[in-house]
Amino acid sequence: MNRMRQRIAQRLKEAQNTCAMLTTFNEVDMSNITEMRKQYKDAFLKKHGIKLGFMSVFVKAAAYALTDQPAVNAVIDDTTKEIVYRDYVDISVAVATPKVKPLFIHDARKNELAVEDMDGGTFTISNGGVFGSMFGTPIINPPQSAILGMHGIFDRPMAIAGKVEIRPMMYVALTYDHRLIDGREAVTFLRKIKSVVEDPRVLLLDM
Question: Does the pLDDT at position 116 exceed 90?
Fold first, then answer.
């Protein structure tokens, strides 16, 4: 095992041994975001030099939801038995297996990541959807207390205003440490993600 794989194995087992992990799920209608991406992707690429992807939307939504539910962004100090609430948000992104910050995504694809690059972060987003995953339960990245799992977008029949419509839907999962985060907070956090992604105007109105 190389150093990266050893660190991943150590952290995953540490999470199993330490956290009381529980996962809650929801589904997100991606219609509005898909349309927004289609409409603005060329202008976005021209101005910022990068493609407008769905991950950036979920990172923005997660940052917003973390400030609304600070327990999801907190951590238990197992030495002092204290809860540490952070006054900042530092989101890591899981690309394939390594959990890394967005800054390091290109390095991960080139296998140029250092073990130190996996450190830090207050919350992780894992995107198994890029491989076609429909459903899954991500594992917490210690010492964090929660992780958001994105999955694939699939057309499904949905009941909309009493009628059946085909919508692009994504299942999302939040695995959290139940020692710190209650079900109410976890569900509220995930619903906040859903509301922002389905209607970005929520951010503008601070709803």
Answer: no
- Write down the pLDDT at residue 69: 95
Catalytic site residue from 106, 182, 199, 206: 182
Known active-site residue 178? yes
In this prediction, residue 131 carries a pLDDT of 81
pLDDT of residue 104: 44
Instruction: Write a three-state SS string for the chain.
Output: CCHHHHHHHHHHHHHHHHCCEEEEEEEEECHHHHHHHHHHHHHHHHHHCCCCCHHHHHHHHHHHHHHHCHHHHCEEECCCCEEECCCCCCEEEECCCCEECHHHHHHHHCCCCCHHHHCCCCEEEEEHHHHCCCCCCCCCCCCCCEEEEEEEEEEEEEEECCEEEEEEEEEEEEEEECCCCCHHHHHHHHHHHHHHHHCCHHHHHCC
Q: Which CATH superfamily is domain 3-204 in?
A: Chloramphenicol acetyltransferase-like domain (3.30.559.10)
Kindly name the residue from 68, 107, 178, 199 that is annotated as catalytic.
178
pLDDT, residue 111, reads 57
* Residue 117 among the catalytic residues: no
Domain positions in the chain are 3-204
Average pLDDT of span 156-179: 95
